[in-house]
Amino acid sequence: MFETLKKAPVDKIFKLLGEFRADERDEKIDLGIGVFKDKNKQTPIMRAVKKAEKQIFDEQTTKTYVGVSGNRGFCDSVSDLVFGDSVDKSAIRSVQAPGGTGSLWVLLTLIARARPNGKVYVSDPSWPNHWPMCELAGLEPNFYPYFDAKTGKVKFEEMMATLDGLTSDDSVLLHACCHNPTGANLTNEQWDIVAKSLKKTGAFALVDSAYLGFGEGLEEDAYGLRKLASELDEMMLAFSASKNFGLYRERVGVAFCITKNPEQADIAFSQMGNIVRASFSQPPDHGAEIVRVIMADPALRAEWEAELKDMREFIVRIREKLALAIRERSNSSNFDFLTEHMGMFSLLGLSKEQVDKIKKEDAIYMLDDSRISIAGIPENEIGKVADAIVSALR
Ligand SMILES: Cc1ncc(COP(=O)(O)O)c(C=O)c1O
Fold first, then answer.
1. How far is the CA of 263 from the centre of ligand 1 (A)?
2. pLDDT > 70: what percent of the chain?
3. 149 in the same domain as 292
4. What is the pTM of this model?
């Protein structure tokens, strides 16, 4: 049977991780994988998470199934967190899914049920999993222009020229904040323009929120998705708690549908449940229960928010220091865009040859398209990273 198949393409992030692990140089630095690392190069378990876990360990009395739609207290608390009061909750339906990826899977599959072979427009570039996930769901991915590697900024006019030309048969996948891989984001005014365009064309919006709280703050980062939720009759949102709660391996996410009326909301909910049942039957509970406990306890929630703020400020500090270190070494402000970017990643705009040179000569690993995980740069090695970038540019 397997002779009919070829090896599947390797995910470039995990391929790079394999190369990094095989490198025997002690001084190696991994800027590939998107996980937060503190000054000790560790990905810590957040304090509020540890406390919630302990509470669950002491108080949980059963491990029986939670049901197809998952942990309802968890889904409702995430709904309040992301949407605030931007939308009438009676039109929202949600199911829990394994991570942001599982949530995207449920939603893309639902789009494909509503619009078989429909076109989904994703940013150029985007998180590498968006494109294959659209294909696997039975949808046709296309790009909309997004990033100008020469300036490090969003090509907003070109992006809008594509979005304005869409029809009500099309769907658009937007990053809520902290765009992956580029780090370049829409301003609030630009989100207003996007909302207006989607309203006019009727193109359907699917928003991917994997980094809420990593940009400017929980409220600030929700501006765009709330704008769409308040302006559009219908949309979808995939939420991941992997990064902002540091629950990566627990696989915690929520798939949301906002619909035109409660009748359609019930249809969407039954369809999402049907997809969950046929895909993985029920989501894992442990991570979701951790988030539910944190969100329900004012002291734990305050502790979580404070720790998230620390992570955000750490990333901002690394961005500023790296931009400064490159400026000092190169006498140019060409990399100042690093301080305008937000979230874990920035795309440096280096060629594949330059990326390979840095890997070979400096043992610094970044993706071939020169995406770096800012949160992966050890604070005491910023100078080394800056040296490597400047030397590759010569
Ligand atoms: C843009 C984007 N969407 C979704 C995800 C998926 O996150 P999860 O690990 O929760 O599946 C990621 C993770 O890197 C991401 O960067």
1. 31
2. 100
3. yes
4. 0.95
